[in-house]
Amino acid sequence: MSDVSIIIPALNEESTIQQTLQQLTVLNPPPHEVIVIDAGSEDETVDRVKTSFELFSQSIKTKIIFSSKRGRSIQMNQGADIATGDILCFLHADTWLPNDAIAIIQKTLTDPKVAAGGFISLMVGSNSTRWGISLHNYLKTYYAPLIFKPLSFWKGLRLLFGDQVIFCRRNDFWECGGFDDNLPIMEDGNLCCKLARKGRIRLVNRIVQSSDRRVARWGAWKATAIYIYIGVLWGIGVDANYLKRFYQDIR
Questions:
Q1: Nearest 5 degrees, angle CA 100-CA 106-CA 108?
Q2: What per-residue string of b and e applies to 53-64 under the rule 16 or more CB within 10 Å gives b?
Q3: CB-CB contact of 80 with 172 (8 Å)
Q4: Could you write out the DSSP letters of every residue in 162-197?
Q5: Among 108, 120, 142, 160, which has the minimal tally of Cβ within 10 Å of its Cβ?
């Protein structure tokens, strides 16, 4: 089976990174390697990554690299550049995979007609599960490309976002140019549009869990309104640098 490299961009993620990495230690089968790209964290992120890496089996390669520039696109490209697995899996620092995630990823990409995939994201907090927003995130995977790129939709385009854990073949990733370093937001949707030229984008019928910290800060209604607003403007071609002002980093 193809080797899977898990790539995690990080910036001030001390509250989540340890749990995310510890979950990776129990994946069965295990990943080929785990790469964390830190962009100058000012908290305990790096120390927690190093501590967590000590728990990994020696058969799993672990690397932490330091980026002089901030931005998920830049960081994930840097991670992909040194990855040695045949498959790249881009994981957010506040998202947790099911134990059989590697097997699911490998099986999904055995179909040569599938260029990339992702999971159903369930947004959870310490005291609640965000069922409404999670449902909307699931539906926009389908309705967003159907509305804004209908021809591509019927050819297999689905819009996956970072909390859905996008994975693809390494060769396809670089042939498509990887993530656009100039995009501060919506880099994931942009990648899906490029990968769709290689084959179908598949939403796997399995769940990953993501932190609800952004929704907890904004509130459910405001978060939903912002997600829709950004999505619509991006769909009609508004510059992502303008959209970034509505989507501040929240830790």
A1: 100
A2: beebeeebbbbb
A3: no
A4: GGG--EEEHHHHHHTT-S-TT-SS-HHHHHHHHHTT
A5: 142
Question: At 94, which helix (H) or strand (E)?
Answer: none
Residue type, 243: L
Is the backbone peptide bond immediately before 29 cis, with ω within 30 degrees of 0? Answer: yes
Tokens 């490299």: give the residue: 5
* pLDDT, tens digit only, all 251 positions of the chain: 689 999 999 999 999 999 999 999 999 999 999 999 999 999 999 999 999 999 999 999 999 999 999 999 999 999 999 999 999 999 999 999 999 999 999 999 999 999 999 999 999 987 889 999 999 999 999 999 999 999 999 999 999 998 999 999 999 999 999 999 999 889 999 999 999 999 999 999 999 999 988 888 888 888 888 888 888 988 998 888 888 877 766 66
| Whole-angstrom distance, CA of residue 251 vs CA of residue 248 | 10
Place of tokens 């693809």: 168
Q: Are 208 and 102 in contact (CB under 8 A)?
A: no
- Helices 72-82 and 187-195, interaxial angle, to 10°? 50
Q: Closest Cα to residue 158, out of 123, 117, 210, 120? A: 117
Question: Tokens 């899906």 sit at which residue?
Answer: 192
Please enumerate in sequence order all residues whose Cβ is within 8 A of that of 170, keeping only pairs 6 or more positions apart, or say none: 5, 80, 83, 85, 86, 87, 88
Give the other-Cβ count within 10 Å of 171's Cβ: 12
Residue linked to tokens 């699931």: 138
